[in-house]
Records
---
Amino acid sequence: MSQPLRMSGVSIDLKLTGGRVAVVRDVDLSVGAGEIVCLVGESGSGKTITALAAVRLLPRVAGMRSRSVVIDGTETRDITDKAFGALLGDRVSIVFQNPMSSLNPVLTIGEQLCEAYLTHKRGSRAEAEVRAIDLLERVGVSAAADRMRQFPHQLSGGLRQRVMIALAFMCEPALVIGDEPTTALDVTMQAQTLRLLKDLARDTGIGLLLITHDLGVVSRMADRVVVMYAGRVVEEGTCEEIFAHPIHPYTRGLVDCAPAHASNGGFLSIPGEVPALTATPVGCDFRSRCPSAHADCHREPPIREEGARRWRCVMDRKTAQAAPTPASAALEAEG
Amino acid sequence: MANPSDRAGNPTLSPRQLMVMRAVGHRGFIIGAFVTALYVFMAVAAPLIAPFDPLDQNLLAKLAPPVWQDGGSWQHPLGTDSVGRDYLSRLIFGARISIMIGFFAALVSAIVGTSIGLLGGYFGGRVDAVVMYIVNVKLAMPGLLVALALVSAFGSSFVTLVIILSLLFWDRYAIVVRTLSQQFRNQDFVLAARAAGASTARILFRELLPNLMNAVIVVLTLEMALAIVIEAALSFLGLGVRPPNPSWGLMISEGRQYMFFRPHLVIAPGVAILGLVIAINVLGDGFRDIAAPEDRR
Amino acid sequence: MIRVILRRIPMALLVALTVSILGFALLRLSGDLVRELAGDTAGPEQLAEVARAYGLDKPLPIQYLNWLWDLLRGDFGTSLFTGEAVSSLIATRAGPTIILALASLVVAVAIGVPLGVLAAANPNTFTDRLIAVVAVFGQAVPNFWFGLVMLVIFAVKLKWLPVAGDDTAAHFVLPVITLALSIMPQFVRVTRSGVLDAMGADYIRTARSKGIPTRRLYMRHALRNAILPVVSLSAVTLGFLLGGSVIVESVFSINGLGLLAYSSILSNDFPVVQAIVVIVSIVYVFLTLLSDAVNAWIDPRLRG
């Protein structure tokens, strides 16, 4: 079975009036079949735009370069938008953040589900409807046949996100990308929806790439975690390793902060801010906030590898894990 | 759409200075403003630049051809009309009528429409229902027919023309201002003023109105352009500016019977209207871009 | 959908009633109706007699109610000049105006909406600017003048089309182009901004992420949402055209309602003017109701 996603050397620039801004730099990312990968980072870290780049849904002002973007065994780097459109929605699909506005208000649920199917599959409308109803039931939508005739505004936010998930699975894709799919839902719906997404991913054996800033979500969902900071991947490893033994000072800061603030407030506790993208320094991007920063950090840090574990820091595993974390350093400074 | 150049701009500039900077960089605005200014200059300085009195008839030189036709001369570059009046001079003086009537009709309707819209938008509830009712009645009436009937009943002096045209144009101000003041009425600056005990009149005129001015000015330019066209149309139909005054609409109407062998008698005043109206439209569109770049499409 | 209409009806009725009062007032504004009817040479006795005969000796509110009652029964009075029933006068003259209005609307929508979509699909490009230039021209050009110029070029010089009248379809070509040009810019603008709004919406991103072809994205997903204001604008424009075709009718000598209203205004034939104003207003009210219903049919959120 081919890998659902393997992209390497991805860089993205935004062309703004002030000039070019490099928002993503030389990112490698892959998702295996049956694997759930969480892409983690603060807002502005480039995680969402990296995922959008994989499916060519970048805003007009963005320009992308890559060595390779393979989706379900197809190298897409040099194919036309039209050819790419045949993969999009079929081999790869996305669940977006805001279910309230992500469904077309003037088309019924059934029309939208069937349209996605009929765009890619040879089949009758009746077959599409059978598949849609089946999927709606699997994502826990009751009275699915009736829902098919309803319009989005007649459904609650939680239901709409289930419809979005069903929509993503209509064509039995190899890869589903979830862009903070539960952020807009209330807390009780979040857990249910994640559970559902996970079950569906396990059942179908697809690769799931989940973009989130919520470490609670990560710990429940992920097989593997990729941490981004200021447009670069800074650390990558299995979920257990990342949470039990984080290496990169930034990851350690994140993990330290996570329990203190339950779900999403965690990042606020790392002192300092993400460097302005227009003024990205040469060398390690995290050094202005890193308690262990020293002269060497002004040079490009090496990428260190230990099996599946990779991190981008001048420090080796031992040194890094012995160093103070950003959050503890902040506590000391305050105390 | 957010304009990133604004954020990158020098933070010490005031909004007004930023507006001026954007204005200077906006080609449409500059061209529109320049051409409009040219017309206004033509209107103001008409007695100085027009070679003849626009009302002076010379029955010996009726329908003189323009300079580019056989028998034309530089004495009357655009020739003369059917009673021997210098056509160029009438064209120049025509700018006065168009601009004056257009501007005052747009201004009076701005005052009426803005007040109505402000009341409905700010007070809401029953006041707003009444406002919407009045606007609906206005929209339902065939404005041009009513205007024609009123002009025929009340005559067409400058003042009556302005008032009757104002009746045609106040509704768009009312709708725009009503929508905006609905948005503004619960914003912090209004709530703060209310908490500080400001009177209703003060809130309406000192807090809300200044925030609505840009939108009102945009509508004003568009309505002025429209008023100029409608004045010309009324005059063309013989129910606007009276002869012998030089209104462009009237000139087109008078030139109509000669248009087969003196087509410029019809074409010239039409082009004059077209130029002015396009310039005002472009100016207004430009002003909208400059005043609220986030609305730019 | 029926509920949508029912909810709008009270306001519609109120507006129609008000328009009838204003229409009635329009007649009284015009001066001494009794003298107008009796003629300049009439003495006081004749005047009183005429007043009695037409019910003009009664108080104004009673006169209004009588007039309204006649109106509801389809009796719009008689023309002061031809003595013809106003209703039949209007019936014979409405045809050309309705043809003119509908044809102009169809042409304006058929050209304006695609241009608006085209502009929205290529924002801030040469195409977009070119379409904007066409729109500004159409909006700025005085249509009586444009009509005359076209008349000279196509009817007089090239002799491709007839000069004046309303007998054949060919007679309507130039008037329809003239009117369509002046109403088209609004359709371009409304469509462009509606499609731009829709194309920036999350649901379009969703549709795009499903690999739905661009053309279908515009035609099915964006336009369906952007068409709502176009429907409303069509209703408003049609109402406007029915009452606003005076100018074009007079340029091209089309014997329609506009020309009838115009000549009646010039000859102080107020029952006719009054009837046209009231009828056009009520048709307008009806058209806006209809457009609300159509919009509710397109957009389920409006069905509530």
---
Amino acid sequence: MRSPVQALSIRNLRKTYGNGVEALTGINLDVPEGEFLALLGPNGAGKTTTIGIVTSLVNKTSGTVEVFGHDLDHDLAGAKSCVGIVPQEVNFNQFETAELILINAAGFYGIRREEARRRAERYLRKLQLWEKRGAIARSLSGGMKRRLMIARALMHEPRLLILDEPTAGVDVEVRRSMQDFLREINEAGVTIILTTHYLEEAEELCRHVAIIDKGRIIENDRMGTVLSKLHLETYVLDLRSPIAVCPDLGEARATLVDARTLEVEVDRGRGLNDIFVRLVAAGIEVSSLRNKVNRLEELFMKLVRNETGSGSSK
Amino acid sequence: MTDQLVKRARRQTNWIGAQTIVVREFSRIVRIWGQTLLPPAVTAGLYFVIFGSLIGGRIGQMGGFGYMQYIAPGLIMMSVITNSYGNVVSSFFGARFGKYIEELLVSPLPDWLIVLGYMAGGLVRGLSVGLIVTVVALFFTHLTVHSVPIICAAVLLTSMVFGLGGFINAVFAKNFDHISWFPTFILTPLTYLGGVFYSIELLPPWARVISHANPILYMVNAFRYGFLGVSDVDVSLAFAIMVLFVVVLFGIAVGLMRTGIGIRE
């Protein structure tokens, strides 16, 4: 069987900064064409360094990176042509208009001005920025600036789009529309790598997840497979009447947060019926129930905590 | 795609990319014309009034020409030098400071082309300002032309040298103070002592020897030779020095881009 085309292939990638900080300790990562990958990790884990190397904003110490078969060391221009980047921080000329920023960005990829104008109109309309095309970029709101950076990254129609926390600080409505747009372009065939601190966003959008911590990949699998590794789920139960003593819920571990709130940790295979039978028997009435955190967040915390534990025991 | 088609596509990308950089630089120069085009005209006008009309009349002839006629090429060249340098240093440092240099760094444009693009931006401003100062000069004096090719070659090479110098300064600068340090403490003294206002024949022998170590002396004199046909230095040597500076500074600028010093982490 023919192996799938790799949008990104990283081998033994290392990065040690001038101050001696080892940001990447030899990571390996394959992202097949058409994938929607969440690259997660705590602050300082190495996500932005990895992205920086792939987009050639950061020089690697060693290892190889290939984008659609173009090796960064041997065909840098070929690799760069395939990548679009939406960085964490605003990085366009704030004194230029939104439309001019897009047209210039296209020019840097060899796209003629007439075609650049057509594409600028398409993406400005798509990202609800058309009315602001003549506005000086500095005057745009935070959400608009982020959408403008997405439009800019798409001007040369890249096959691989990398977004470094694109929805940070953006209101819910804008975030939803940005997510819909990302889903749409992924369905159109663009491979997407997304870093985000909103783990529910990653769970909702991405089919694959890679978790990076302390410069190495500690988890890399299908989203469903990764989530299935999580055995426990925590529910928060709001009680109709206050209680003084934490009830015995058998196999489930209960914690009384306050007189009207009970947290219950349940094995995912066991279901909730037994818990409710015991609560009814104890005369406790539940008024509402919710998940404490989203599943991916729980797994993420668990993995990172384990890493910290194993790190400190060395 | 065959290698030939890839090469052709890259050439087209580079050509359009270079055009985009230059057009962006030109737009910037025009957008902030009050900072880029107007001040050199005012400054040059003042120089011509003070050194030319008021004081120059008492100085008499220099190099066989009226004083105003003698200093006009030097004043034009001085504005070309400071504006070529100033344009690239402020534009490239601004791009680094505002992080929008990343737009170019992530693009497929090669490092040498980015340097070339910024240098061309310096040329556009240097030559525009040179032209404006020339027009101002014509209000005060008559400019003779000895050799058009020498005038053009000298102004182009000088503008390139200082555009590249501005680029290198911008790479190393960490704040806005650093981009004004070199022009204030090195460039301006070298320009003033580079034969803009006088012939080095007027200097004592030891000062004449020291003056020959000043590269700006060669640029000003080559340019002046193009207008008046007189020079304090060997014009061929002047051009050799200018070409050498262009080649060396271009090599350094591309090397800095490639290694990423001050640009990439």
